[in-house]
Amino acid sequence: MPWCLPRYIYRDKKTIYGPMKHPARKIAIIYATIDGQTLKICQVISKFLNKNNLQTEMYPVESFKEDPLTFDALVIGASIRYGKHSPLISNFISNNRDKLSRIKTAFFSVNLVARKKGKDDPGSNPYLTRFLKKMVWKPGLSGVFAGKLDYPSYSFIDRVMIQLIMKLTGGPTRSEKPVEYTDWEKVEEFSREICKMNDLPGSGE
Predict the structure, then answer these.
(1) What pLDDT, in 10s, does the model give residues 47-86?
(2) Which residues contact 153 (CB under 8 A, 6 or more apart)?
(3) Do residues 142 and 132 touch, judged by C-beta distance below 8 A?
(4) For 6-147+184-197, CATH number?
(5) What letter would DSSP give residue 4?
(6) Which residues of the chain have pLDDT under 50?
C-alpha cells in the first residue's frame, strides 16, 4: 500500500507528524526525557505509526496543554533517574486520570535495569510495576525499554551516582563512549501493538 510523505509541523514545542491526505486517527505522544533516549524512542514509535496511517503529535509533558479527549489515544513515555520517573509525568497522570480512562492509552518506561533478563518486560520490571501501582492507573498497553548509558555526558554527581548503581547491579562503571541498550525490535513490536489497540474500544482503567 503506498503511503504519502509525512508532514512535519513545529509549533509551540509541539511536533505534528502525519500523512498529508486521508485524515487519520490522532495520537498524542507525551514524554519526559533526561538524556534524550526517551525522545529517540518516541520518534521511532511516531515514525512507525505514521507509516500505518496514524497521525501523531509529540509533546514534552511540560508543553502539553491540550485536552486529552481531543485525541483518539495517548502514548506516554518516561525515563528513570535515581529510581524515579519524572514527577511531571506523575502529576500529568494524576490530574488526568478520569480522561485517560475514557480513551486508549499506552505507557512505557525507559530504565537501565531493563537491560537485564527477567526485568525486561512490563510484568517483571520493578520500576514500571511500582509506578503503575502508585498511580492507581492501568494503561491499555504498557512497555519497558532499556535506555542508554552515557558517562561522558553526565555531571560529576550524576556520574558518581550512576557508577554506584551500575556497580550494585553488575553493569559497567566506566565507558568512554555511550552504550545503548535499547532493543529496537521491542520498540517496533510495542508500536505494532499500539496500531492493534487503535482498532479496539477505549482501554484505560
Answers:
(1) 999 998 899 999 999 999 999 999 999 999 999 887 889 9
(2) 35, 178
(3) yes
(4) 3.40.50.360
(5) P
(6) 1-13, 19-22, 200-205
Task: Name the helix (H) or strand (E) containing 165.
Answer: helix 156-168
C-alpha cell at 130: 511500582
Residue spans of the domains in the chain: they are: 6-147+184-197, 149-181
DSSP run (H or E) holding 29: strand 26-32
C-alpha cell, 112: 537501565
Of the candidates 70, 67, 36, the one whose C-alpha atom is nearest the C-alpha of residue 55 is: 70
Q: Is the dihedral of CA 96, 63, 37, 162 positive or negative?
A: negative
55 beta partners: 26
DSSP for residue 5: P
| Beta strand spans in 64-140 (E) | 73-81, 84-85, 104-110
Helix (H, G, I), strand (E, B) or coil at 130: helix
